[in-house]
Amino acid sequence: MPTHICSSEEDVVDAVVAARRWRSPLEIVAGGSKRDFGRTVVTMGSTLDVSGLSGIVSYEPEELILTAKPGTSTSEIEAVLAEKGQRLGFEPADWGALLGAAPGLGTIGGAISADTNGPARLRHGAVRDHLLGFRAVNGFGEAFKAGGKVVKNVTGFDMPKLVCGAMGTLCVLTEVTLRVFPRPSLSKVLGIRDLTPEDGFALLRKVWSSPLDATGLAYSRGTVLIRLDGEPAPLAEKCAALRILLDREMLEIPDGEIAFRAIADGSVFEDMPYDVWRCFVPPASAAQVAAEIDSPLWLADWAGGLLWVGTIPGTDTVRGSVRRVGGHSVLLRAEEETRERLAVFEPQDAVRLDMTRRVKAAFDPLGLFNPGRMWPERMEDV
Ligand SMILES: Cc1cc2nc3c(=O)[nH]c(=O)nc-3n(C[C@H](O)[C@H](O)[C@H](O)COP(=O)(O)OP(=O)(O)OC[C@H]3O[C@@H](n4cnc5c(N)ncnc54)[C@H](O)[C@@H]3O)c2cc1C
């Protein structure tokens, strides 16, 4: 079965029109770094290779706006932004190594589609808060645009929110416009050791509700990590205010940026034989959930709003506890059989499922894009 290699929006339109004609579904692939996240795509082998849709289309540092083709590597975008003292606010994670691929392959289209929010999401918001607009091709083979290229945006359906985390099941992105943020000149990570989860999460929530604007609040194996950013003088003031707020002995972690990069990427699980879950919970319930789940290795980000949990392969010891506190969980890494059996994404209630079906039918009625990736191949079978 063919691989459609696309380097322009017209190529994508042609490929989708052909796929419609032959009723031949497509697996959309760019860097391929997250191919093992989600369920396995069921096609007859037809691939839509969008890695050639690559390059920065425009970048206006003074407007804090960047437009790129979706196959552009996230690392290239970060390097270009860094030259102008800017960065992506949602701090996209690189799950390549965690999922058994090479690191550094991730593309901006993949980061948006898989919702790869890193530690700074706590301060700057998630991918969906940064995607101002996009161009794409729907399942009718029609090119369309949504949103805009300015922060103050047009009215209409907020489709940029919809494609974040849709795992390529709604449309093929062909261009994305993101708002970007100034990069602070300095970042400091302070740590406090020997804390129980209850005490650790209570401290993190105290910092989170203070005006210190922390860009990282994590807990791992008894240690709390707090990241503060800023210019040298304001940053020194923030550190002093933090010491007064917490009134605790604090260590300056010399390689703190590396520690937060590792948290974003789930690096601690890379060589571990566990299944890996990302559990989204109310921070005030994080300690309770952590106590309930049977996990040999776990850590928390976002002041407890995100629990990274390792479990014995093939077991689900997390989903019930997470659901009971009103959260949801995603099985990020596991064998194909486990992902099939346990459901990668939180099973939806009847109302959401109905909405999901209708949205899918509006964008891709023939089910051409990434069938099986989020749900069983046919939505009617969910
Ligand atoms: C400060 C803070 C406070 C928080 N407070 C709360 C709280 O009070 N209550 C609470 O429950 N959570 C809370 N959270 C957790 C919050 O809900 C999560 O941050 C959020 O749900 C996950 O964000 P996300 O954008 O990373 O992922 P999501 O948008 O949730 O998506 C994660 C993954 O799941 C998939 N996915 C999402 N929705 C669906 C779907 N419908 N069907 C299939 N797949 C899907 C996406 O594809 C994506 O890959 C808090 C978080 C923070 C940072």
Shape field: globular
Helix content: 25-40%
> Rg, please?
21 Å
Q: H/E element string?
A: EHEEEEHEHHEEHEEEHEEHEHEHEEHEHH
The tally of beta strands, per DSSP, is: 18
Topology, element by element:
Blueprint (H helix, E strand, L loop, with lengths): L2 E3 L3 H14 L4 E3 L17 E3 L6 E5 L4 E4 L5 H10 L2 E2 L20 H7 L6 H4 L6 E7 L5 E5 L11 H5 L8 E8 L1 E2 L3 E7 L4 H12 L7 E5 L2 E8 L1 H15 L4 E2 L3 H10 L9 E6 L5 H7 L4 E5 L4 E6 L7 H6 L3 E6 L2 H7 L7 H14 L19
Parallel strand pairs: 1-3, 2-3
Antiparallel strand pairs: 4-5, 5-9, 6-10, 7-8, 7-9, 11-13, 11-14, 12-13, 12-16, 15-17, 15-18, 16-17
The structure holds flavin-adenine dinucleotide (FAD).
Can you tell me about this structure?
It is built from twelve helices and 18 strands. The protein has 382 residues and is α+β, with helices and mostly antiparallel strands. The strands form four sheets. It has an eight-stranded antiparallel beta sheet, sandwiched between helices. It has a five-stranded antiparallel beta sheet with strand order 4-5-9-7-8. Strands 1-3-2 form a three-stranded parallel beta sheet, with helices on one face. Flavin-adenine dinucleotide binds next to loops.
What structural keywords apply?
29% helix, binds flavin-adenine dinucleotide, 12 helices, 5-stranded antiparallel beta sheet, 382 residues, 18 strands, alpha+beta, globular
